[in-house]
Design goal:
Elements (H helix, E strand, L loop, with lengths): L1 H16 L11 E4 L10 E4 L3 E5 L5 E8 L20 H9 L3 H8 L14 E7 L5 E9 L4 E8 L2 E10 L4 E8 L5 E8 L3 E7 L2 E7 L23 E10 L3 E4 L3 E7 L1 E10 L15 H13 L3 H16 L3 E3 L10 H9 L5 H18 L25 E2 L3 H4 L2 H5 L3 H26 L10 E2 L16 H4 L4 H16 L2 H22 L1 E2 L5 E2 L10 E2 L5 E2 L6 H21 L3 H12 L20 E2 L25 H14 L5 H13 L3 H11 L18 E2 L5 E2 L6 H14 E3 L3 E4 L10 E8 L3 E8 L2 E9 L3 E7 L2 E7 L4 E5 L1
Parallel strand pairs: 28-32
Antiparallel strand pairs: 1-6, 2-3, 3-4, 4-5, 5-10, 6-7, 7-8, 8-9, 9-16, 10-15, 11-12, 12-13, 13-16, 14-15, 17-29, 18-19, 20-21, 22-23, 22-24, 25-26, 27-28, 29-30, 30-31, 31-34, 32-33
Bound molecules: alpha-L-fucopyranose.
Length: 802
């Protein structure tokens, strides 16, 4: 007893004396005992618009700065291939004749330009002039308050830095201190990969520059940027030091502090982006004036005041959800070592919680800008030539970014995507007409960018239809509108903004679908993201008719549009048309291997283990396949997942965990969750036996590889999906609870119907549940064999001992 107590006291002592910080094994702190050498080791901060990637170096602190609105290009000319649609009948004819080779060739005529790219704003370097041996280095990111810290000692002097990026004040703050008076000596430089000019005036280090106007000519071709002085998005960064003592010094292009003890660095950035349809040069915002006004306002405020405002703004969102998974015996280790240990199969429940909450942290930090959703890298991209242009890939990646938005209680963070869909519905009208010959509704294809381009990509006939020609994004995205409504119960949004967009997506597909030889509705031409079929005579191709993924997504789109029209009590006639169409859809087919067929015929896949599984859309994120409603289809979905296996890219793992959760197989979902959290070495790191593949980097970023943020979000969403599943009428509690999580509690998970769930369980049995209703309503709670109907008034909460 006594020795246990002593041990505990000793542990508390060790933890609280380490680097002066409390670092007990944590579910909210990422920490390291060395600076980051690689991007995938850095710690990221953001306010939904501005992003900072902090390396925490001793002699040189490197911080990449991003603004989510800084892209190449300018508003898209959606009418880029006005006669493309004239080729559709010939493709249909080729498909009717089962001439797949010709169909694939002709499908290339339905292509337009590629997307623009997300651009890095710049790099800020803080050079420190302390020499000597470094000891007690410590670096952390605390996701419970969205602040980061670095501290170390040199010759007995302790240096600290604290960083945050504030949404209420639109500013990045860095506070530097030294434990010895006057020991702080540093200077700051700004640079950018873009065309820019840095200078110091009135003790402000400013950098002004502009983004390229064009373009990524194709993934296969090296990027070629054209810089024109009077075109493209302008950007500004401003840096100013507030010192308590010492002297602020400057050169023509650097700003510094001499012999100080404490200083605060204010960093303000801005761009001229003024909306997807406004020329960022001739109709742009004044980036200089905006950056300066944010800087001046923040500069009058104290560090404590700014910090407090930042933390309370952030915690308003973050604190809505908490998760506990019971006792853990995992030791307290730096996050990189912790991940390695976990990858070797060891238990670490708090790491599992940390990864879940980190997903929520990342979404709050990168998704708060109207019309500009989180991109492929969230908003943290250092590259001029980023992987996949750091753009929006809409055949999975963009949507997966938002799977956690509603169920993990971050509905506000969904709105950048929802407003972006609205923009897509504008350019998408032109795309529907010019590429597909459809005069009603809107269409969107595989890629997009900040300019809401909707055309199929491929550089006008140069790229593979297997990804370039997919045109079902409108169906998929419109389901996000329904999800937002059904979780939030915001009828005004549905009526005034959401429903017309959903209707437009449905209108397009109603016209686009054709009948097969037996009178069933299908799409033609179709492709299935981004897999290829093998016909019985050996042809490997992408273009086909009746792809099952298209049908699954359009089914969801029609179904949700009908539901929305009923909620609003409008468009009964249109709804009836959708009902009739749904009854004629070419039905799902079960293949010879017991799998859910991806192709119209029971063909083989070129790659049976392909990372995409879009034909399982109805199981997740859709809901028309469930183990109860459609047991045969659920079984076939399971067979498909078994054939594909579990080894895949980061985002694909994220998706499969959700699929297993929807199949109510908690242990398989958990197995794959563990595999998503498998340690992956930074991309550039040369080690003898590098750990590569889909998984998680030392900074807990998702590894496709390379870094893509979708896997972080998909993985976090899946945790919620394992604990709570819901539809318009029912809430399943603990539907896919893994054995490893036999006891625990959760607070604040959202369910469809506008409910918020908190509950406790032990020995895998639900003990207590409390349900809060946002807008009043009824639902049925289900757990195991027990069901309970509840009706609540708006704002009412009930607690049930189960
Ligand atoms: C899709 C995926 C790739 C990658 C890219 C950004 O094309 O098939 O794996 O994630 O998007």
């Amino acid at each position: 007893m006594k020795s246990n107590l002593l041990k505990k006291l000793f542990l508390v002592f060790i933890c609280s004396s380490f680097g002066g910080k409390v670092v007990a094994q944590s579910n909210h702190i990422l920490w390291y005992n060395q600076p980051a050498d690689y991007f995938e080791e850095s710690l990221v901060l953001g306010n939904g618009k501005m992003g900072a990637t902090v390396f925490g170096g001793v002699n040189t602190e490197k911080i990449y700065l991003n603004d989510i609105t800084l892209w190449s290009g300018e508003p898209v000319n959606a009418n880029m291939n006005p006669e493309a649609y004239k080729n559709i009948p010939a493709i249909r004819e080729a498909l009717k004749n089962e001439d797949y080779k010709l169909a694939d060739e002709l499908n290339k005529k339905i292509q337009g330009k590629n997307s623009e790219s997300y651009a890095p704003l710049g790099t800020m370097e803080i050079n420190n002039f302390q020499e000597g041996k470094v000891s007690n280095y410590y670096r952390e990111l605390d996701i419970s308050n969205a602040t980061s810290k670095v501290s170390y000692e040199i010759d007995g002097v302790r240096y600290t830095r604290e960083y945050f990026v504030s949404a209420p004040d639109q500013i990045m703050i860095i506070k530097l201190t030294s434990s010895k008076k006057g020991a702080l000596n540093f200077d700051i430089h700004s640079s950018s990969l873009l065309k820019s000019n840095a200078e110091v005036k009135d003790n402000i280090l400013s950098m002004n520059g502009f983004g390229p106007i064009h373009e990524n000519p194709g993934y296969a071709v090296p990027l070629s940027f054209i810089l024109e002085k009077e075109r493209g998005t302008r950007f500004t960064s401003l840096i100013k030091i507030k010192n308590t003592d010492g002297t602020v010094v400057s050169t023509a292009s650097s700003l510094g502090l001499k012999d100080g003890t404490e200083a605060i660095i204010y960093v303000s950035i801005s761009t001229s982006f003024n909306g997807f349809d406004k020329n960022p040069y001739t109709e742009g915002l004044n980036s200089k004036a905006n950056a300066s006004s944010n800087l001046n306002k923040a500069f009058t405020k104290s560090f404590d005041k700014l910090r407090q405002a930042h933390i309370s703004d952030y915690q308003k969102f973050f604190d809505r959800v908490s998760l506990s998974l019971g006792k853990t015996a995992a030791p307290n280790l730096p996050t990189d070592e912790r991940l390695l240990r976990y990858s070797d199969g060891k238990e670490d429940k708090n790491l599992e919680i940390l990864y879940f909450q980190y997903g929520r942290y990342l979404l709050i930090s990168c998704s708060r800008t109207k019309g500009v959703p989180a991109n492929l890298q969230g908003l943290w991209n250092p590259h001029l030539n980023a992987p996949w242009s750091s753009n929006y890939t809409m055949n999975i990646n963009l949507e997966e970014n938002y799977w956690l938005a509603e169920n993990t209680n971050l509905s506000e963070m969904h709105t950048p995507l929802l407003s972006f869909i609205k923009n897509l519905s504008v350019t998408g009208k032109v795309t529907a007409k010019t590429f597909y010959g459809i005069n009603e509704g809107w269409a969107a294809a595989h890629n997009s960018d900040i300019w809401a381009m909707t055309n199929p990509v491929g550089v006008f006939g140069n790229e593979d239809p297997v990804w370039a020609c997919w045109n079902t994004a409108g169906a998929w995205l419109s389901t996000h509108i329904w999800e937002h409504y059904i979780f939030s119960q915001d009828k005004n949004y549905l009526k005034n903004e959401g429903y017309p967009i959903m209707k437009g997506a449905s209108e397009f597909f109603l016209q686009w679908m054709v009948t097969d030889k037996n009178g069933s509705l299908i799409t033609s031409p179709s492709t299935s993201p981004e897999n290829k079929y093998k016909t019985p005579d050996g042809f490997i191709g992408a273009t086909l008719y009746g792809g099952m993924a298209d049908l699954a997504m359009i089914r969801e789109c029609f179904d949700k549009t009908i539901k929305a029209s009923k909620v609003l009590n409008v468009d009964a006639e249109f709804s009836a048309k959708l009902e009739t169409a749904l009854s004629k859809f070419y039905p799902y087919q079960i293949g010879k291997k017991g799998n859910l067929q991806e192709w119209y015929f029971d063909w083989n896949d070129e790659d049976p283990k392909h990372r995409h599984q879009s034909h399982l859309f109805g199981l997740f994120p859709g809901d028309h396949i469930t183990p109860l409603k459609t047991p045969e289809l659920a079984k076939a979905s399971r067979a498909t997942l078994e054939i594909k296996g579990d080894e895949t890219t980061g985002w694909s793992k994220g998706w499969r965990i959700n699929l297993w959760a929807r199949l109510w197989d908690g242990n398989r979902a958990y197995k794959m969750y563990r595999e998503l959290l498998r340690y992956v070495d930074p991309d550039g790191k040369k080690t003898e036996n590098p750990r590569r593949g889909g998984g998680t980097y030392p900074n807990l970023f998702d590894a496709h590889p390379p870094f893509q943020i979708d896997g972080n979000f998909g993985g976090a969403a899946a945790v919620a999906e394992m604990l709570v599943q819901s539809n318009e009428n029912e809430i399943q509690l603990l539907p896919a609870l893994p054995d490893a999580w036999d006891s625990g509690s959760v607070k604040g998970i959202c369910a469809r119907g506008g409910f918020e769930i908190s509950m406790e369980w032990s020995a895998k049995m639900l003990k207590k549940v409390s349900v809060f209703s946002k807008n009043g309503g009824k639902t049925t709670l289900i757990c195991g064999n027990k069901k309970q109907d509840i009706t609540l008034k708006k704002g009412q909460k009930t607690e049930i001992v189960w």
